[in-house]
Amino acid sequence: MPLFPIRSLLTATALATLTLPLAAQEAVQPENTNAIAANTSVQADRFMVAAANPIAAQIGYEVLDRGGTAADAAVAVQFALNLVEPQSSGIGGGAFLVYWDASTQALTTFDGREKAPMAATPEYWFGEDGTPVGWFDAVVGGRSVGVPGTLKLLETLHDRHGRSDWADLIEPTKALARGGFQVSERMSASIAGAKDRKLDAFPAARSYFFDKTGAPLKTGTLLRNPKFADALELIQRYGSKPFYEGRIAEDIVEAVQTPFNPGILTMADMAAYEVIERPAVCANYRDFEVCGMGPPSSGALTVGQILEILSRFDLPKMGPGVESAHLFAEAAKLAYADRGLYMADSDFVDMPEGLLNDAYLTGRAALINPSQAGGKASAGTPPWQEAMLRSPDTQLERPGTSHFSIVDAQGNIVSMTTTIETGFGSRVMTNGFLLNNELTDFSRAPEADGKPIANRVEGGKRPRSSMAPTIVLKDGQPVLAIGSPGGSRIINYVAKSVIAILDWEMDPQAALDMGHFVNRNGGTDIEAGSDAEELSAGLEAMGHEINVRDLNSGLHAIMITADGLIGAADPRREGVAMGD
Ligand code: DON
């Protein structure tokens, strides 16, 4: 029997009547995982948006309500998030987007991942002593900044699938940037939390996020961002050109010349940036195809391995509980072991084709003892031998990202995960937006035991990601759009929620509310203060090393059913689902 209650559904109308910006602010949820907000699933007939901030969701809702496409709404939502959730994403960062085109009945993906400067070498992260620097020592400053991809991604998406005027999609955010918006509870808490983590290291972020006395901005402060409004005006008029080749590119190249950890980005690096359209990577899971982002993300392959391994066990019959959490953790260990050895930017590194091979995963599943935890898993040997020349990468990414899901009235779908890497990225700010620290998603060590690490830095390469924007199909038709922030835990959050919705037939909101259990090929993390704590004793008895901790996902899901759309927003953040 399900451990977790199925919540009742709320019609969308209540949320849809919110107006900008004050009413939207009232829907702000507590941001702390230990104070989980009670969201309810939202139902709609025609269209829906589920995003991490109510102002951004409202702006997306209005685009859809005016007949805009999912692509149009994605553009509007991303610009809004940049302003009202600046700690997590924006045009200074990168993103991956999975797109369902209702007219061609086809899935595709867009890779807007940041790129290393062309002059970067595998020793990029070596300190003066010739060894790799520590993670946080690498984060702050211009050196961690990769060429941003998000703006080019939005422009590409809009060119291909947009219908609304580009400038109109940016206008609401520009107006809020000029007129001011109220700092949300989560943004305020994030600023306070980052004060001791060098958010005030450089003047631009210091003067924007702190008041004149140096105190972090409080919830409800009216904040204006005229520099961002000016940049948006340029982008409204000239698209991405000023950002990649003009005045904003010059500002970025100058801004990364920080007094410590200066970067090496050039105008040529900026101008050479390209969004890459790539085929979706799909895993078979029972009657479903779970599709998402292939390399340079490890998302779809690792989510896919976990699910395909688990399809060898009867999870639907088991339901949520100790037995299924154990199998999930063991499957995740095996998948993360392969991720560490093999997965990186496949434009630079050959990767085995057999990572989702049926026979291979049958063999991997057979390694699981259903009643006893194994130790740390080793990578397998999919049919491709060169891989054995590599060493595993132990790099695990940290918090600072956002996911939104959108379905428009024509049935087009966007599932987009967008990031500046850690909260507030590199802390380097220009033109009112933060620049990413995505280059710390590379392995800082280029090799181990004399063997190269697949995810080492190389000039022009994209760092491996865990972002897993996902669209699930059944009989060739979309049934679910979902994704989450959470660094390398994203893979666990997404795989577990897919199981909860598809196998355990949980209402989407109940699935997102469910307490997390996570394994990244080590101990099993259990979400503090959640229902999952009930699993700890049983898992420990099976040999799991349990760590009870805060697990801050940001899942935003839309289920597509014969009776309409059902949306859900992660109670651990301040987002909402809105539709009509
Ligand atoms: O690309 C990645 O996998 C990471 N840079 C994402 C970081 C992240 O999700 C932070 N989330 N809260």
Find the structural class using helix and strand composition.
alpha+beta
Largest beta sheet, briefly? 8 strands, mixed
Q: What proportion of the residues form beta strands (DSSP E)?
A: 15-25%
Number of helices: 20
Mean pLDDT: 92
Computed CA radius of gyration, to the nearest angstrom: 22 Å
Distance between the termini: 33 Å
Which ligands accompany this protein?
A: 6-diazenyl-5-OXO-L-norleucine
Shape: globular
Which strand order spans the largest sheet, edge to edge or round the barrel? 1-2-23-22-18-17-10-9
User: What is the percent of helical residues?
Assistant: 25-40%
Low-confidence regions = 1-35, 395-399
Number of strands: 24
Would you give an account of this structure?
This protein is α+β, with helices and mostly antiparallel strands and 580 residues long. The chain has 20 helices and 24 strands. The strands form 6 sheets. It has an 8-stranded mixed sheet with strand order 1-2-23-22-18-17-10-9. A 7-stranded antiparallel sheet has the order 8-5-4-12-11-3-24. A hairpin with a 2-residue loop joins β15 and β16. α14 crosses α16 and α14 packs across α17. Bound molecules: 6-diazenyl-5-OXO-L-norleucine.
Quick rundown:
The chain has 580 residues and is an alpha+beta fold. Helices cover 32% and strands 18% of the residues.
Key structural traits:
580 residues; alpha+beta; eight-stranded mixed β-sheet; seven-stranded antiparallel β-sheet; 20 helices; 32% helix; disordered N terminus; binds 6-diazenyl-5-OXO-L-norleucine
List the helices and strands and how they pair.
Elements lengths: L8 E3 L1 H4 L5 H5 L14 E4 L3 E4 L2 H12 L4 H15 L9 E8 L4 E7 L22 H5 L10 H12 L4 H14 L1 E2 L2 H10 L8 H7 L12 E2 L2 H13 L2 H4 L2 H9 L11 H5 L4 E3 L2 E5 L2 E5 L6 H12 L4 H4 L3 H21 L15 H8 L35 E7 L5 E7 L9 E2 L2 E2 L12 E2 L2 E2 L17 E5 L2 E6 L7 H13 L5 H6 L3 E3 L4 E4 L8 H6 L4 E4 L6 E6 L2 E6 L6 E4 L1
Parallel strand pairs: 1-2, 20-21
Antiparallel strand pairs: 2-23, 3-11, 3-24, 4-5, 4-12, 5-8, 6-7, 9-10, 10-17, 11-12, 13-14, 15-16, 17-18, 18-22, 19-20, 22-23
Helix pairs in contact: 3-4, 4-6, 4-7, 7-10, 14-16, 14-17, 14-18
Bound molecules: 6-diazenyl-5-OXO-L-norleucine (DON).
